[in-house]
Amino acid sequence: MYKIFLVEDDYSLADAVKKLLESYGNEVHKASDFRQIADEFSSIRPHLVLMDIRLPFRDGYYWTAEIRKTSSVPIVFLSSASDNMNIVMAINMGADDFIPKPVDASVLNAKVQAILRRSYEITENSHTIEFYGAALHLSDYTISYQDKRMELTKNEFRILQVLLENRGRIVSRDTLMTHLWQSDIYVEENTLTVNVSRLRRKLED
Questions:
Q1: pLDDT digits (tens, 9 = 90+) for 43-72
Q2: Whose CA, among 26, 32, 98, 194, lies 20 to 30 Å from 162?
Q3: 204 vs 60, 199, 201, CA distance in Å?
Q4: CA angle, corner 108, sides to 105 and 110, nearest 5?
């Protein structure tokens, strides 16, 4: 299930979009305080944002810029201001797509689902596991993203591989330890924690 943050002050449209996207299994959160969009975003931690341009207090461009300071989450603009200047400005501000109003339900749903699949679903071949632009290379214990490539230790690699292969599911501590060492009998309590902490530091950038 994907979480979608809907920033739209036309309440009838917001209700219709929420109903549509939830019918496809998504969890939709409508903005409730247009003074605190960035705070709501941080609280919800959505997989995708639907953003109107003309909003009370601050416009969608402002809130997109605020979100982009901390997150690369996909953002799709919904707006009746669909002239070329606004579309170009939205994309330059960090939007991933622009859907003009009045919104066509089938187009909206198709674009949202396509962006979610492209951004979050893992694609695999015999050599890599890809996820949200990053590629875990199974042949040489490395991970690459954009123009960076980083080596991982065997344990770091195995941890990341298990997590990616189980995207959307909770992976227990025991499962990770068993996968790494086949048996957790001889593993000290903090060994897995240390390996996860090192992996997080490597991936932080």
A1: 998 999 999 999 999 999 999 999 988 888
A2: 26
A3: 28, 9, 5
A4: 105
